[in-house]
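Discussion board: Methods & Data

I've been asked by a reviewer to show the raw model output for two of the constructs in my manuscript, not just the figures. I'm not sure how much to include, so I'm pasting the format here to get opinions. Each protein appears as its amino acid sequence followed by a line of discrete structure tokens. Is this the kind of thing reviewers expect to see in a supplement, or should I convert it first? Here is construct A:
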Amino acid sequence: MASTGPPQSLKRSDTLLTREGDQLIITPLGAGNEVGRSCVYMSYKGKTILFDCGIHPAYSGMAALPYFDEIDPSTIDVLLVTHFDLDHAASLPYFVEKTTFKGPVFMTLATKAIYTLLLSDYVKVSKVSIEDMLYDEQDILRSMDKIEVIDFHQTLEVNDRHLRPAEIPQFSPDICIIESTYGPSVVMASPSGLQSGLSRQLSEIWCSDKKNACVIPGNVVEGTLTKTIINEPKEVTLMNDITASLNMQNCQSVEMYFNSEKRLAEKTPEVGETVSGLLVKKAFTYQIMAPDDLHVFSQLSTENVSQRITFAYTGAFGVLEHRLKQILESVESLPDEESEGPAFRVHERLTVKYESEKHISLHWRSNPISDMVSDSVVALVLNISREIPKVVVKSEEDTKTEENSKKAEKVVHALLVSLLGDVKFGENVKLVISVDGNVGHLDKQSGNVESENEGLKGESSIPVDPKCCEANPSICVLAPSLWFSLYFRLLPD
């Protein structure tokens, strides 16, 4: 009953092991690439389970047993029998009575009732010598006392591990071990290269059984799975990066890795700390778990939504960063090589990037807190943009015209002071002129004179040619008659 050779592992090629307890090992001690003596050994997190304990109907004596010498029966925590067929239950009396196994055995009431009848008939009709008999009827009766009955929809706890009821589960199982029987089936599937589609899926399901065959009717292209199979490899790489043997044998182990611990947060909380996580409800059961574990322990999945907003900003990017540092608690500059240009991060949630002289952009992963931070930053940036004084660039011609106007105004003011004495600049482009206690307000543009003295009111003309003064203030010409008229009008009657 020795193993046919060193087991070939079925494992993920780039698996990152975080804990040794995450490793699940499944080893068929029988029914591996054959029909008969079903017996599957499974080890996970320090616990071992044996599924079924049958015989091979084509052999007799010790040769009909599963490969029990590959394991230590005393380390088996529990043995589960799925149903009463001989190839699933007929070696149970031998295993519980003549090995070091001391654990509990579970099966349904119907299986136990038929088990004793079927095995009694098996002993009676077996045409073997007494020396080759695996057990007798007394061994069968004694094994009955060690079998515990489990009902449908019943959950039992064995060594702090739950045995779920035997039914189609409402959750997605991680591992499914099923019995398959012979039956010829021909499926024509495409593509012929087996690189994807239905043909690839069927190939991965059937490739481990040597009784299955693949007929390749067309050309073979390099780099496809078809080309690999033609070279007759011992194993191939599946679409999920698992390396699969093309001919799985008894005592060949399958190794898988699972993250079995539900995390409530990124780190294990200490006593008194606040626990944060997702509260998941299914039926009447509530569970709290870390967001990253949601897809592992439930049928739910999560998605990340990345948001970006670009808007106008014409101020200096450094000024913006400085102003935000004065208002917000956490604003950190980012290296150019990391952000591909000037950028800074706000509260480790939102990134502000310089896009151009007229635009900046905000980037963040959407969640309630980050969305709130982004709204605050947008409001602050828009407010800062309104506070920045606007700079109007004037042409050289406009600048020269403005300078000439100021010079002309100064010349006119100087001439009026020399003629009338008390002349001051008033509001709304008016000159305030005082003559012997009479005050008049002269509009420099229209030439109108306003005064409390009715005799001074009326129209006059400013004796200055504005165009002439703007062009050359030094040649401004006064009209003496007009000035004298103005002078005398301002004199008292």
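Construct B, same format:
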Amino acid sequence: MALVHNMFIRGINAIYAQAMDIDARKAKSFAFFCNALMEMIHHHHTLEEELVFPFYESRMGANAMGHNVEQHHDFLPGLEDFEAYVKDVLNGKAVYSGDLTIKKLDSFADIMVKHLREEIPTLKSSRIRATCTEADLKSLNESIGKRILEGVSISTMLPLGIILHDKSSEPKYRPIPKAIIWFGQYVLWHIHSDAWAFGPSDAFGKPKPGFGAKA
């Protein structure tokens, strides 16, 4: 979970690092990157609330994940507002503004990052293994995998995941098979390479200086 949360933080940092330097020529590509990141974060938290947290609470007790859900609701309005804005830029309904991008990001980013850091101890392995069997966890992971395939565009989310990853801190793209990663790097990445150029890492997970790669 920490690996995924760090990917989100790197993505937010990348937006902050570049927002004021985006001109009209790059606006839609940057908006695509921002929108894809918001959709990934949104999907992640929906998956937690609808599948992961209920599963853990069935083992740990009612409301064991309640504080995590409360924190989701604290930053969700700002995230949705930012998501709507970048969609409008992407669809030509709004003119891109670096100042407005920063302002909207400021409305939720600090709260969200605080949540991402505080959620990790509630999901630490010792707590989970004390209440869940190996069969439980295998079943949960299978359900998560199925929901991910049903709920996201792999052609977008796989390249995005690759450019949010930092191989210097985590060499492997767990638990994705090497063949799938290869397909993402050499095929899918090129479909929206103009947008993925704004990622904090390149197509091979190597952090790019000045692109907010530090989580």
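Answer (T.O., handling editor elsewhere):
This is acceptable in a supplement if you add a one-line summary per construct. For B, something like: The mean pLDDT is 91.
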